[in-house]
Amino acid sequence: MSKKVRELYEQFPYPLRDPQEEKDRLLMPPMDTLSRVNHYGFAGRKNVDAGFRALVAGGGTGDSMVWLAEQLRDCGGQVTYLEPSQASTQVARARAEARGLVNVTYVNATIGEFAAMAPEKFDYINCAGVLHHLEDPEEGLRDLVSVLADDGCIGAMLYGEHGRLAVTEWRKMVAPLLPGKDLNEQLAMTRSLLSSLPEGNMLLKMGGGPGFIKGLLENDPEIVDLLLHPVECAYDVHGVYDFAASAGLDVAAFTGFFGFGGTGKAHYSIENHITDPRILRDLMALPLRDQQAFCERYSAAMPLHAFYLTRPNKVPSVAVMPDRDLCPWFFVAPSDSFFDDLLKYAGKPIVLADGTGNAVDLTGGPDLAKLLALFDGKTSFGDISIRLRDEILHKQPIDMNQIADNTLAAVWALFHKFDWMLASSLEGGGQQHDVERRLSVLAPK
């Protein structure tokens, strides 16, 4: 980590947080929700207990540290907060103290310095918005792998190359004006430029309009981190895969970070972008990473990439259908009237929605509610398939084993699309609900 980067975060701890607000709210970064980590990073089989150890590498002012420590508080799991900035650590520690969190160890060091200490291995490592600010990001990732348990998972976030084009162009624009100015002078200049942006400026479009700029002007650390950082790089989808491979890791899944309606993985699925069946067929024939790269360029709306990394061949894919002994459950809890509404509108076109923009069109028969009620976190895929075969499809005059499995896989794919459902073993970690979303049935028009 360069001297300028260290100085920046001492002067402007990031993100801007008031420890007193911990009394009234809990920030829950979606990438660090342990049910999601277990699902994607451990195929639902990790036992989150007193032996679970999490590392937040580059913890800033403590968002991920606080959320992980809260989730591990009751089971006895431990969090190590790693951050070179004393100013950021002071804020993070005050936030943890305000919440009464005692399962956190604080280490003031860089990633490289910490790896050289040869600590015990970690089950989960969060490293969000950090590696792209290092002089050698690949070395930083290798250092993280050196402290990762053999079956461990890394949740990472890197800047996106195409969705961040407005920031890249801004940095090019102001580069000739920066020499000779200290950070406070650069900030004053940037605030002046932001306050009088032309309507067609790319930064306005990237942020969604004047409200974005107003928010920036009220948050100096955000301006500095976004527009004046001395060291940064960005990655496209192929770059993310290559970056992971440089440390001997696989991309297990893309996930959400913020501003993606609860989950960001749907942005990487071509079915959510393309409706022309001929184009869709051609795209589906491409390797997955090429499909995802197409989505990134086509949407032009991915300012960052959040994803889980695992060692090769360590985690079975959950994209099609998890192993038959795992138990699916509603990560996004159904509304109180969800099952009644499914019965009420059986045979009619409906929309399932979670209130954050994620929705699917569906026409379900009267047995759909009966099937979905089995996704209770206690009944395995194998048992659900048997009951689907014997209790719902039993009247069909053909062998129903494969039909039941195919039907179950289709239902799983539908509800896994936006992480409405996850899967885990009964012995694994707690089956949390996404408290920011609720799954509802919208009446047919």
From TrEMBL:
<dbReference type="InterPro" id="IPR029063">
    <property type="entry name" value="SAM-dependent_MTases_sf"/>
</dbReference>
<dbReference type="Pfam" id="PF08242">
    <property type="entry name" value="Methyltransf_12"/>
</dbReference>
<protein>
    <recommendedName>
        <fullName>Methyltransferase type 12 domain-containing protein</fullName>
    </recommendedName>
</protein>
<dbReference type="InterPro" id="IPR013217">
    <property type="entry name" value="Methyltransf_12"/>
</dbReference>
<feature type="domain" description="Methyltransferase type 12">
    <location>
        <begin position="57"/>
        <end position="154"/>
    </location>
</feature>
